[in-house]
Amino acid sequence: MRTNKVISSHRTFGNIALIVLFTIFSFNRCKNVDKISEAQVFRYNEDVSVNTLDPIYIKSQSEIWIGSQIYEGLVALDDKLQPIPRLSKYWEISPDGRVYKFVIRTDAYFTFVEPNQNGKLTPQLSRVTVNDVVYSLNRLMNPKNGSPGMWVMNNVDKAPRVLNDSTVEISLKNPAPAFLSLLATNYCWIVPEFTQKWQEGRLSQQPVGAGPFYLRRWETDVKLVMLKNPQYFVFDGKQRLPFLDAVNVTFVKNKQTAFMQFMAGQYDFFNGIDGSFKNKLLNQNGTIKSDYQQRINAVVTDFLNTEYIGFYLGDTLKGKPNPFRDKHLRKALQLSVNRPEILRFFRNGLGSEAVNEVYGFVPPSLLGEHHKEAKTINYPQKSEPLREFQNSEFFKNPSKFAKISLTTTADYLDIAVMLQNTWKKTLNLDVAIELQTGGMLRQLREKGDLGMFRGSWIADYPDAENYLGCFYSPYLVPFGPNYTRFVSKEFDQLYDEISTGIVRSDEDLQQRNANINNANQILSDEAPFILLYFDKSLRLMQKNIEGLSNDPINRLDLRRVRFKNSL
Fewest beta carbons within 10 Å, which of 128, 141, 148, 286? Predict the structure, then answer.
């Protein structure tokens, strides 16, 4: 979505490439091992490898999208990102907000394939029970399994337990307003207890869930096929979902090649935009150009992803005093950034900027009733960031401090160069740019070896506390995602109230939202980071697709997708 690879647009190359693509895919589409109606097969491409489909190890978007077709959890999120029952029929919460009781539905079935007596793979069914739920959640909590999502259950006081053949109980250490949203994450998807007997690692390659589809075939980095779960428990009126018969996923790594295949009609859906073709597809305000509007549909949605530059706030940096300890320097750098130019030049308008001049970390859609988008942002005069810079200790004695540099990956080099030029022009400050791979950047960031680093935070769950937790002092690395090492007693107190308060009334919710906005304001004022922009996602689809939408967490819900005039 954000790569900057330059690919030739020479007309001859494009024609040859399209001929090759049509040839290859015409051949592939002739193969239909499972005898499924071509009209009801939904096709899309993943340019990122899928390494596991075991819920407690799934991390990437590509894995989550496929896993969400196969699995279900106790709780799901509706189109407004509010918790709703899924494998549970309903839940009850104790008056102190610490005990949750879930009543499990009786019409949900795990679906999977196993060979019959003749060796032919056939679908098998197994009803979801309370034992499956308890097994799945305890498996996530077990430190021996080393799940990256174990933190989701950090507030669980006692192991989830079976109360009777229909009820599961979970007890918390403290009340947690966002606990139901946590249970809706992929880490809490439910797997059958019988997989406990399987060889280690088998579930990652042979997933078994109660979702709308089940895995039929998977050739790593080539193709993955999912078929309709004939006993999926969700209905649309009187019709059992999903409408589709199958989902085919390919793994073409080159995003421009995949886009060409999409435009040639080989895929029904395409996600994101690449720098190599964004100007051909998009106007500068983020809308689709008229040439493409006749051929495809597009959905642009707020995406819960904050793009930012983080400051390391430790005392020393590379053996010298850390210049970023000085708030004046951080504010000077923060106030110099021209976000509209970043969005216009590098994102073609796909993003939003500060809200009411608050350069906070929490995306606007999570700021509750206090969120009112400003029509215009009054950007500071050039003298204001310069005044902040001249008040900094670094301005007075630069040789005393560590060198100022910005570390980024190649995908964001263009934005880094723009910031470098801006700071030179506005502050007369020389900032070096250091390139690292994503893995090395994360490693150096956690060690505290980077003074300024590019980062992004995509919501694990749609609640402001997930963003504010990046600056909570008990979550200092390695105990959490506080990579900046920001510490504020006032902020920590607000975060404690946000994350552990009891919300039972509109007044409670209003107070929680007020605390969220106050904590976000502290981050804007103290500037442990520089907001670049709040992201938006772009979803493209063929004209004959119905029922495919999007939401701020960029889910891929295929349950109600169908082709026009197919039903």
Answer: 148
